[in-house]
Design a protein that fits this description.
This protein is an alpha+beta fold. It has 18 helices and 25 strands. The chain folds into 2 domains: 240 residues, Glutamine Phosphoribosylpyrophosphate, subunit 1, domain 1, CATH 3.60.20; 175 residues, 3-Layer(aba) Sandwich (Rossmann fold), CATH 3.40.50.2020. The longest helix is centred in the middle third of the chain and has 15 residues. The structure holds iron/sulfur cluster (SF4).
């Protein structure tokens, strides 16, 4: 992607009934690192107590040595990686969050955004609730904690009745691990098995890493309770596979790992199909197709297959540029694009080039890339984007900039082409993207392109803006 800062918010992982549960979770979080780079954490249980280790940074920053895993004893554990948009990434907001209340201890890891979070939090605070964090995830625990509920599960079910938006959850208590997917199924969650152990994961690539077998996806609206008696599924909102769902189409286009199976489809294959659709919709005469690595690779392959134009690596990614790359001087800022992606002159010189990227958000990075391709000798540059133009923010767990900064929300196609200094530009249509994704259109959320939000957005405040309000 154009490296313009869109980030997934979180990834979750859990293991029940394994002697090395915390270590497996640690490995699972490694596989899910792309879903959140700013904090990581694991909570484990030995059946009596819960143990926690979490911190800011990558999984490798938080779990540096074996000593960090040693305190996480027990046969069950859940873990979480998280991304936050603000400079105020706080340790207290790192997940899993761990709470002690009238029904015992509970840890929670959350992927998604609760869209009525502010309203619920104001209401809870009016009744005297004291929040420990500034995340929307804690609201679920407060809603669960009413003393009148007979047990944790009843509390959780009642809490879910109140929250709106996107939530994929893993919870851990001394006696059970619980997985939840919201009724519209915005974010993925899968069930796996390794020996006699059960596994929950945001993506199947994390199952692969620990050699767990994929069992099935957790269904939208399903609450799965895993304990020593086995697995039990509940459907507090009813069970309807026929009703509207809202799988995030952008999981396929950009966020999920290409080797994962998400919403029943292998991401890499969907991306190749996106490229094929793109080539049919926006043909062009050119000498070479080059992908913007890594996420443009599969779409470029698909584009090449349909257009007959050969694909070649025309820019090479430096895989060692970390998220913490400092920009201490103007010189470094000016060279940043080349530090990440270096054009290969021999591939580009004198040639008509089709550049395939998976998205353009603000457009500034894309513009710099085109400049650097021209400097490397490209004769013509034809931008092809394997998703529709982004015009709207996401309220369901993806950090897009607001409309004022979204290139396509403020310019028409020709203005975008001129701004980027491309010879031509073509975005995939929403119909083409849906065809490539493979399920009927009613199964997907497409709001960041179409503006048709699958839930009512009343507040326009997400977990991060709530954080900004409270940490300034
Ligand atoms: S608005 Fe876009 S990014 Fe957000 S859930 Fe919907 S499709 Fe995904």
């Amino acid at each position: 992607m154009s490296g313009e800062g869109i980030k997934e918010n979180c990834g979750v992982f859990g293991v029940w009934n394994h002697p090395d549960a915390a270590r497996l979770v640690y490995l699972g979080l490694y596989a899910l690192q792309h879903r959140g780079e700013e904090s990581a954490g694991i909570v484990s249980t030995d059946g009596e107590k819960l143990f926690i280790h979490k911190g800011l940074g990558l999984v490798s920053d938080v779990f540096k040595t074996d000593e960090d895993l040693k305190p996480l004893v027990g046969r069950a554990a859940i873990g979480h990686v998280r991304y936050s948009t603000t400079g105020s990434t706080l340790l207290k907001n790192a997940q899993p969050l761990l709470f002690d209340y009238s029904h015992g201890k509970v840890a929670i890891g959350h992927n998604g955004n609760i869209t009525n979070a502010k309203r619920l939090r104001d209401e809870l605070e009016a009744y005297g609730a004291i929040f420990q964090t500034t995340t929307d995830s804690e609201i679920i625990i407060h809603l669960m904690a009413k003393p009148s509920y007979r047990n944790r599960l009843e509390g959780l079910t009642q809490a879910l009745e109140r929250v709106e938006g996107a939530y994929t959850l893993v919870l851990l208590t001394e006696s059970e691990m619980i997985g939840v997917r919201d009724p519209l199924g915005f974010r993925p969650l899968v069930l796996g098995r390794v020996g006699k152990s059960h596994v929950l994961a945001s993506e199947t690539c994390a199952l692969d890493l620990i050699e767990a077998e994929f069992v099935r996806e957790i269904e939208p609206g399903e609450v799965v309770v895993i304990n020593d008696k086995g697995i039990e599924s509940r459907y507090p909102f009813g069970r309807s596979q026929e009703g509207p769902q809202a799988f995030c189409l952008f999981e396929h286009i950009y966020f999920s790992r290409p080797d994962s199976r998400v919403f029943g489809k292998t991401v890499l294959i969907v991306r190749e199909r996106l490229g094929e659709e793109l080539a049919r919709e926006h043909p062009v005469e050119a000498d070479v197709v080059i992908p913007i690595p890594d996420s443009g690779n599969s779409a470029a392959l698909g584009f090449s297959r349909v257009s007959g134009i050969p694909v070649q690596d025309g820019v090479i990614r430096n895989h060692y540029v970390g998220r913490t790359f400092i920009q201490p001087s103007q010189l470094v800022r000016d060279l940043k694009v080349k530090i990440k992606l270096n054009p290969v002159r021999e591939v580009l010189e004198g040639r008509r080039v089709v550049v395939v990227d998976d998205s353009i958000v603000r457009g500034t990075t894309c513009k710099q890339r085109i400049q650097s391709l021209r400097k490397a000798g490209a004769k013509e540059i034809h931008m092809r984007v394997s998703c529709p133009p982004h015009k709207n923010p996401c309220y369901y767990g993806i950090d897009f900039p607001d409309r004022a900064q979204l290139l396509a929300a403020n310019k028409n196609l020709d203005e975008i082409r001129k701004f980027l200094d491309a010879d031509s530009i073509g975005y995939l249509s929403i119909e083409g993207a849906l065809r490539a994704a493979g399920h009927p259109p009613s199964k997907y959320c497409t709001a960041c392109w179409t503006g048709k939000y699958p839930t009512t957005i009343r507040e326009g405040v997400d977990k991060f803006s709530m954080e900004i309000l409270r940490t300034l």
